[in-house]
Amino acid sequence: MSELYRHLPSMDQILDELTKDEDIAALPRPLVKDQADAFLNVCREEIRSGAVTTADQLELKAVLPRMIAYVRAHSRPHFRRVLNATGVVVHTNLGRSLLARSAIEAVTEACGHYSNCEFDLSTGQRGSRYSHVEQILCDITGAEAALVVNNNAAAVFIMLETLAKGKEVIVSRGQLVEIGGSFRIPDVMTKSGATLHEVGATNRAHVHDYENAINEDTGALMRVHTSNFRIVGFTKEVSLPDMRKLGDKYNLPVIEDLGSGSLYSLKGEGLMGEPTVQEVVAQGADVVSFSGDKVLGGPQAGIIVGRKKYIDRIKKNPVNRAMRIDKMTLAALEATLRLYLDMDVARRKIPTLRMITASQESLKSKARRLADAIRSELGVKATVAMKKGFSRVGGGAFPEYDLPGTMITLVVDGVDAEDLREELLNTDPPLVARIEDDLFLLDPRTLTSTELKLAASALRQAVDSLQ
Ligand SMILES: *Cc1c(COP(=O)(O)O)cnc(C)c1O
């Protein structure tokens, strides 16, 4: 056995051969060497375990294909594109929204060049970072002023820190939300220095509950959108107009964490229960915050709109600097917002809205194209079928709505559905699929047209390595 170790190819030979591969030649040399070393350790282990028994199995040309695959797989950047066949449109773990073409171009422009990021071209003096999006946010939402920060969690924090630190904030018990990734309203409240004053019962809160809770320490009335859950049955929450009246009577700001915060009304699609930002502003919320990358379909950002006197105070908060939005995000956000100047353009050009509002015919046709692509990759090994099923908006928006569409189910001879789903996480690019009722399922809603072939190719890679 110890004889065999001496037949392992030398590093010089290996590097010569490896760098004939174009992709590997483009990688940093020390990285390739480390991975080739790691591969040799795999070979040594195979000798030790008795999996390799003859010298010719260790010849360079015998191990080369595996070595190339190994080095490629282990030298890839960690951050990778994936194919989303889950049907969850705003999938937080998969990066939420895809940007519209014009937003992608704006990012490229912003990061490869100097810009007027914080420079006023009309005076040649220092300008404001927020100026790029404030006016357009006001135009779209009807608010007096606007501000953007890193994400909505930061937006909620800075609203509270600025307007209610050292004071009480009244919130209904039915709205004490926890969002994925440990964002909890009571905890954020504590960290901001404000004190949570809960009112009502889990399922019901009344105007008099709020009114009875108001005292000299009250700093704000707050509403939180119950993004990812619904309380159904015998329920009542105080409406925003009623809250506005209370705010006026006691001279208190009404703050709203709208969560997803849609600028496009999805009522036409039968998706109810999520007010648009425009509606919330019109109904008198003083300060409203929402995410840039949920249903809005832009980059990660926290957007705050509302009355100028409050927004001005938030802008001056020194904490703001620690939450500031970067230039690439700003560029993407402005480009995305410009699409909202014509709602029909927004629906067609913003991928998130396009996926949510896709017609049954277009989903069916996409499913058919995906099925064809899979059949031509897998041939007789695979039984591909179409069936009715449901997608989700995701991102904690419209949790009670299923979006009907056409799914692809796939059965491959001799391959377990769960094994297939797992193996697809190792393909290039990886594909994230679903198992439903023990069936392997792909939802084409969240694959773009150009990704259908890539998805079929990922399936072939996975099936090849499982068989
Ligand atoms: C998603 C959400 C947040 C957090 O927003 P991020 O942009 O993810 O930071 C806060 N509040 C509500 C109600 C949400 O739905």
Your description of this structure?
The protein has 19 helices and 18 strands. The chain is an alpha/beta fold and 467 residues long. The strands form five sheets. The chain has a seven-stranded mixed beta sheet, sandwiched between helices. The protein has a five-stranded mixed beta sheet with strand order 2-14-15-18-17. Pyridoxal-5'-phosphate binds next to α8. Residues 151-153, 156, 177, 179, 183, 224-225, 227, 257, 259-260, 291, 302, 396 line the site of pyridoxal-5'-phosphate.
Helix-strand layout with pairing:
Blueprint: H1 2-5, H2 11-18, H3 22-25, H4 29-49, H5 60-75, E1 83-84, E2 88-90, H6 101-112, E3 119-120, E4 125-126, H7 131-141, E5 145-149, H8 152-164, E6 168-172, E7 178-179, E8 183-184, H9 185-192, E9 195-199, H10 207-213, E10 218-224, H11 240-250, E11 254-257, H12 277-282, E12 287-291, E13 302-306, H13 308-316, H14 327-339, H15 343-349, H16 351-356, H17 360-378, E14 382-394, E15 403-412, H18 417-423, E16 431-432, E17 434-436, E18 439-442, H19 452-466
Parallel strand pairs: 1-16, 2-14, 6-9, 6-10, 10-11, 11-12
Antiparallel strand pairs: 3-4, 5-13, 7-8, 12-13, 14-15, 15-18, 17-18
Helix pairs in contact: 2-4, 2-5, 4-5, 6-14, 7-14, 8-9, 17-19
GO molecular function: L-seryl-tRNA(Sec) selenium transferase activity
Pathway: Aminoacyl-tRNA biosynthesis; selenocysteinyl-tRNA(Sec) biosynthesis; selenocysteinyl-tRNA(Sec) from L-seryl-tRNA(Sec) (bacterial route): step 1/1
Domain L-seryl-tRNA selenium transferase N-terminal: 5-44
